[in-house]
Amino acid sequence: MTSIDEARTALGKRLRELREHAGLNGKQLAELLSWPPSKVSKLELGRQTPTDDDLRAWTLATNSEAETAGLIASLHTLEIQYAEWKRVLKVGLRSHQTELTEQDEKTTHYRVFESTFIPGLLQTSEYARSRFARAVMVHKTPNDINEAVRARMQRQEILYRPNKRFHFVLTEAALRYRLCPIDTMVTQLDRLVSLTALRNLKLGIIGFSTPYVSDPRHGFWLLDDEKIRIETYSAELNLRQTPEIELYAGIFEQLAAVASYGGEARAILTRVMDQLVAEADAASS
Question: Quick check: 93 and 132 in contact, CB under 8 A?
Answer without folding.
Answer: yes
